[in-house]
């Protein structure tokens, strides 16, 4: 018989996605049935009512980041927003130059479009990071050239939680006369964001990371000082002032605005609560286990993030032992091989430690009971796996494993 205590489900993967807040769902429901019109239908009240809901949402989202409503473009999510920012700017500003700067720890939704442009003849500079996941601001400054059209640096890292100093990066880009895009998927509604004060020209975000629905995102596009212009990536109908064609996801847009409003209603209180849950989990794990490494910047990081490497165990084996705990591992299953996370590699974390990493992320609905249950199960799993590890035994005996000569076959 299975142990029922093992069957308790605990969700600690808030950085992957969040549950929709009941108040967000409540705000969305009318737009699925009663007020179901297409905001592009200008001839009747169904369309007008939908349009006014979109207008109100656009205005409240814009105000939350110090923007104007006309600067918000609705998309299907942050991946689309990132693609529109990078490809749209690159193609529109091609006469100015074909150089783009980004960073090694960005999300694939930034690195992949940049790589795609590289194949089309753009030059892509990918800045490295230090052991905490930070870029060198002087290196950024000297990397910007006359023909640099865009710098794209994320606000908060999705794996290790490191927060980049966005205002300083924005100031550097503004002084150099190049556009600055930030992927704020992990930070909008959580960290302080003001596009004017921080000199942000483009910003991507997604509703499902802040207790809103999946399938809706935004791209903020600055209209003044400087006016940013984009070549659309998606054509057909000229919606969103020509930037992004397609029928708007009205319930999703209403949900996005409500989710952001709820986040900002008590942002500081919620950040404090979330960080408290994370710190409780971190203390439980680091008090009970040795050889635990924190990945990322322990101070400048997302309140929800705890990325730990448990030396001498495999992350994948840990996940199997931590039955019922939803977390993510630092190595992604790709085809037949287990590749360590490229983000951890960029920090200089060795492959063994990268393979033993687990990202825990807590959120609004996490309870102390859930944190303690997850901690108990993690500690028990690590201890059990280490009991079977000859490497752990050698390390305990004081043998420096880096000096061991392994015999080949």
List keywords for this structure.
alpha/beta, 38% helix, four-stranded antiparallel β-sheet, 409 residues, globular, seven-stranded mixed β-sheet, single chain
Structure, explained:
There is one protein chain. This protein is α/β, with parallel strands linked by helices. Helix content is 38%, strand content 15%. The protein has helices at residues 22-28, 45-64, 78-92, 108-119, 137-143, 166-176, 250-265, 267-288, 315-321, 342-346, 351-355, 368-387, 390-396; strands spanning 10-11, 72-75, 99-103, 123-127, 148-152, 179-183, 202-206, 217-221, 292-294, 305-310, 325-326, 328-329, 331-334, 337-340, 357-361. Helix 1 (22-28) packs antiparallel against helix 7. It starts with 9 loop residues before the first strand and ends in a 13-residue tail after the last helix. The model is unreliable at 332-336 (pLDDT under 50).
Summarize, please:
The chain has helices spanning 22-28, 45-64, 78-92, 108-119, 137-143, 166-176, 250-265, 267-288, 315-321, 342-346, 351-355, 368-387, 390-396, and strands at residues 10-11, 72-75, 99-103, 123-127, 148-152, 179-183, 202-206, 217-221, 292-294, 305-310, 325-326, 328-329, 331-334, 337-340, 357-361. With 409 residues, it is an alpha/beta fold.
Distance between the termini: 43 Å
- What proportion strand? 15-25%
Strand neighbour order, sheet with most strands: 2-8-7-6-5-3-4
Radius of gyration, whole Å: 23 Å
Q: Residue-averaged pLDDT, rounded?
A: 93
Total number of beta strands: 15
Return residue spans where pLDDT drops below 50 for at least 5 consecutive residues: 332-336
Q: What letter string, H or E per element, gives the SSE order? A: EHHEHEHEHEHEEEHHEEHEEEEHHEHH
Task: Please identify the structural class as seen in this structure.
Answer: alpha/beta
* Helical segment count: 13
Report the major sheet.
7 strands, mixed
Percent helix: 25-40%
Q: What form results from the Cα inertia axes?
A: globular
């Amino acid at each position: 018989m299975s142990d029922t205590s093992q069957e308790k489900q605990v969700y600690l993967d808030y950085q992957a996605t969040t549950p929709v807040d009941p108040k967000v769902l409540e705000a969305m429901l009318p737009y699925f049935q009663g007020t179901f019109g297409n905001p592009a239908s200008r001839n009747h009240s169904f369309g007008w009512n939908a349009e006014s809901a979109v207008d109100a949402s656009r205005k409240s989202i814009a105000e939350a980041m110090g923007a104007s409503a006309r600067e918000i473009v609705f998309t299907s999510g942050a991946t689309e927003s990132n693609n529109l920012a990078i490809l749209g700017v690159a193609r529109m500003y091609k006469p100015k130059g074909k150089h783009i700067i980004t960073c090694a720890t960005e999300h694939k939704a930034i690195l992949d479009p940049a790589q795609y442009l590289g194949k089309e003849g753009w030059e892509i500079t990918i800045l490295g990071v230090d052991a905490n996941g930070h870029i060198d601001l002087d290196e950024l400054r000297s990397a910007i050239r006359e023909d640099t059209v865009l710098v794209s640096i994320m606000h908060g890292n999705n794996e290790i939680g490191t927060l980049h100093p966005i205002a300083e990066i924005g100031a550097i880009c503004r002084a150099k006369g190049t556009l600055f895009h930030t992927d704020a998927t992990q930070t909008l509604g959580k960290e302080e964001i003001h596009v004017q004060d921080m000199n942000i020209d483009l910003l991507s975000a997604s509703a499902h990371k802040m207790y809103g629905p999946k399938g809706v995102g935004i791209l903020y596009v600055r209209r003044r000082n400087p006016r940013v212009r984009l070549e659309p990536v998606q054509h057909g109908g000229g919606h969103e002032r020509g930037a992004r064609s397609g029928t708007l996801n009205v319930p999703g847009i209403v949900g996005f605005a409500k989710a952001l409003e709820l986040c900002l209603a008590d942002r500081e209180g919620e950040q404090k609560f979330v960080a408290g849950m994370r710190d409780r989990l971190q203390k439980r794990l680091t008090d009970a286990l040795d050889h635990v490494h924190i990945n990322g910047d322990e101070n400048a990081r997302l309140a929800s993030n705890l990325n730990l490497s448990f030396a001498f165990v495999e992350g994948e084996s840990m996940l199997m032992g931590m039955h019922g705990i939803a977390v993510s591992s630092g190595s992604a299953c790709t085809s037949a091989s287990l590749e360590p996370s490229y983000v951890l590699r960029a920090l200089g974390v060795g492959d063994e430690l990268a393979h033993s990493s687990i990202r825990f992320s807590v959120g609004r609905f996490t309870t102390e009971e859930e944190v303690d249950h997850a901690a108990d199960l993690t500690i028990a799993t690590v201890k059990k796996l280490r009991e079977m590890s000859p490497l752990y035994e050698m390390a305990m005996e004081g043998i420096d494993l880096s000096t061991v000569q392994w015999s080949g076959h």
